[in-house]
Amino acid sequence: MKSEKWLLELIVGGESQEVEFKKMIDSSAAKDLVAFLNSNDGWIIFGVSDTGELVGLKDKNPDKVFAEKVVQGIVPSPVNFIKTYEVEIDKKKIFFVNVKHKKGILFSFGGRIYIRVGSLSRPLGIDELLVVAHESVVFRFDEQIRKDVDFRCVDKAVLNEFVETLGIKDVFGGLKSLKLIEIVGKKKFLTNAGILFLTRNPDRFIPGAKVKVLVFKKGRDEVVELMESSGPIWKIIDKITEFVIEKGFVIKYKTGVKHKKIFSVPVQAFREALINALAHRNYLVPGEIIIEVRKDSIEIKNPGGFPPGVSPDKPFHAPRNEVLCNVFFRLGFVEKFGVGIQRIRRWCREYGLDDPVFYTDGFTSIKFLLQRKKVNVEERIIDLLKEKPEGISSGELCKHLGISKPTVVKILSRLVKKRVVKAVGKGKFRRYLLRGPNL
Known about the structure:
Structural class: alpha+beta
Low-confidence stretches: 253-258
Shape: globular
């Protein structure tokens, strides 16, 4: 139970995104209750005018009146997400209703779904309803059949490579089982997932189905290079990664007379984040994925928040686009579901970088921070060898650690002399293993 002082301060603060005043308890409050349930936690305060004046209630049993006139007409029942408080302030009966927003459920009243915008509660339009449903994983965008896009829109070269990669013998049967096409009578139509994987330019049919890379001038908010890619989503991953590696800021080192470069972010971490953006974004939001390359950061922004119950701190597999995720898995782009964020963080730590920063507010963003920390390289090499009992090459260690090969080889030689590490093989076949008690 909140204190009377706290509740009074809530009234003094006025109506807002989180607070709604009502003079009396009647069915007009149902849309406000639904709006809070669908949007954010909030309070409905009965017995208070729009201007914040305490007018009080005459109802003997406000809880009963509220249940009958407001709660009863809401679908599904919201009783588990509301708490009520009856308080007397200045000898006037005030009735407080605390509402908890519930992700993953859409509440309605009178057949309409409401959301909270500022101090107003308004109904969703059809387009908005689809976006919210998709964001809540109530509606599966990628499974939807597109009867305006038949099989003739498939790019033959892309199809042949796709079928060969997956070893599909029965083309139509295989594509149907993957939910990339649907057969209706004698006609074959693409699903939205089919458009994204099998057409040359998916953004012709799905607005915003592309990736835009912006390279900024060092120290300025000025774009010096722009790249847009709208190919099949499984074909553009390597193209975009290579572009960002080339245009991104790199660590340079000299080996002999040659100069080599190491990408300022672990390549596998960037690639994993890009795959996540393509697989999990909300395609009903007509905006493209944006990648911003700056001197001190590389940021990937994609439309849509995390699915209900999922956050960077509590990552698990709850796919918004289940078909896309399954096809990426079959193609080998995803090794295991639900571990992408942990892997990205681990790769960054191994590289001497801070954990990437996540933002989510309608759009989801992952920002790689490029300021490298000082790390004990010997300890990191030993940790990596513990994870790879079969051994690892000096080149692989360079990629994991983001440091030059001469430096890695020098440290490995020192560890070999200390009999901590054992070298096996010669030349390009040489691998390093952590010594056990019997080595």
